[in-house]
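Please go through the sequence line and token line underneath and see whether the fold suits the sequence. See right below:
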Amino acid sequence: MTTAATDSVHQRIDRTFDGLDSNHDGYVDWSDYQNLVDRYLGAFQLDRGDRRARALQSIHEMLWLELLRHAGAGEDRLLKNVFVAATRLTIVDTSRLNVVEGLAHAIFDVVDTDGDNEINKDEFDRLLRDVWKADSPESSKAFGRVDTDDDGTISRQEFLRAAQKYFNSGDLNGAGNLRVRG
């Protein structure tokens, strides 16, 4: 991985921290992840007992435990620089959990509200607007970057590739170039 790729991935993880830190206290803790899961459930009107909601909750709990493990944290909250480093380690260490793939599958299942195994523009816009509070001009272009075959929908495979690109690629024209706010 080049330095440019490293820097852009760092910036994306940095923005992810900002989107997660819902109370803006400079830390991410489990309550921030729970808040994110709750935003998904609210945006996509899912009951906590729904299998998709349970899968989303579980993958976020596993992600949180992996972040703490890689951070070597003595407490249950992470500063931004520790979060970025722990996230990078969690992404590359797939010995226990492939976080990127697991999250992408769970999120795809939630966002695909009609169960047709594709995400349409309205479903994708709801993800960006209601879950991640994305509000930049770039976010409106994101659908086209993820829909790589230009068929007007995002397949599961396109979504998985976009998630991989977000956390692993230096390509700023890729799917991960979104501005989010908590």
Summary: Strands lie at 27-29, 77-79, 118-119, 154-155. The helical segments are 3-20, 30-43, 51-71, 80-92, 99-111, 121-131, 137-146, 156-168.
